[in-house]
Amino acid sequence: MAKREGLEVSIAVADAAMLSDVDVVAAYPITPQTHIVEHLAELVADGELRAAYILVESEHSAMSACVGASAVGARTFTATASQGLELMHEVLFIASAMRLPVVMAVANRALSAPISIWGDHSDAMAARDVGWIQIFVENGQEAVDNVICAFRAGEDKRVLLPVMIHLDGFALTHVIEPIELPDKKAVDRFLPPFKYPLPLDPEKPVTMGALGSPFIYTEVKWAQEINLENAKDVILEVWREFGKAFGRKYSPIEQYQTDGAKTLLMTMGSYSETAMVAVDKMRGEGKEVGLLKLRLWRPFPHEELRQAVKDAEVLIVLDRAISFGGPGGPVCSEVKAALYGEEKRPKVVGFVGGLGGRDISMSGFEEMVKRGVGIARTGSKREFEIYGVRE
Description:
By secondary structure, the chain is α/β, with parallel strands linked by helices. The protein has helices at 9-19, 34-45, 59-71, 82-87, 89-97, 122-126, 140-155, 184-190, 214-246, 271-284, 302-309, 330-339, 362-378; strands at 3-8, 24-27, 52-55, 76-80, 103-108, 133-136, 163-168, 176-181, 253-256, 263-267, 289-294, 296-298, 314-319, 347-352, 384-386.
């Protein structure tokens, strides 16, 4: 039987890794993800989880240990946040290029300077091009479910890629929610044992990630890109199978109150739930507003986005990170690129907000929609604004 109880989301994420029968956890503490790896250490020490827990001296070492563990065929998990994700940045490329299906929970937190322990998506966006599958969740239940799905999708022989599960720091990690932990036998039926097809073996020594000359490097990178793009079909398949097994369904772009909506708001992560309340209020006032929740960040769901916005007139995209010196927010830039050349596409207006943990209230989303529609209707060339800046 599934177990439903009030749990801190970080604890539930650790429990999801335990339910997935991880073999190796290598991690280094950093706020706000520390409770995840602390709980895993307790589970190993108490004998509830039979896994090797590797104590390391930095996040760079944590990911290096995960690479080695995954390469010998161990189901491997870690977690990090903010500067920790940036410290392991070098090794993130190695994990994806060597096709090692490490699963990592990222408790999204603002990057320094100034030092901030509060959440935004600047760490995630700094790691958007490292070749990992990346999934955003908006509550604790989604975090639990997608950790389990991440192992199945990443370890599939058609994929063999590492996966990041992004959950907002503090707004999710330290919140207690009613969460249904799936039954262990049900998880075992859904998630088969990990059998890495090309494990390192001392009896059969090989070299992995060796020198790639200009003669072959481009072809290797192109093959990596094709593999990540093709992984989307497997991710969708995994989500469908999870829905059949557990009754909760996921998709690359999830729609809320979009029927007949001429104006669409797009969000990622925990702010999506506040935005839903705002959309309900605006709908009640007769406004044709809907919400798109972008879940699959990499590989980017181009076709699903085009279908979701084809009948809209205005699309307002909220970014929680700035692309410094660029056109505003990285998500908005990707959305515009995906829609470029489409005969029927909405006017796209971008807002950057919620930086460094600053709240966006229900009325804040209402204001964004009002201002966004105004920008679109006036034909302003400025299609990007920082929301909530104090003059």
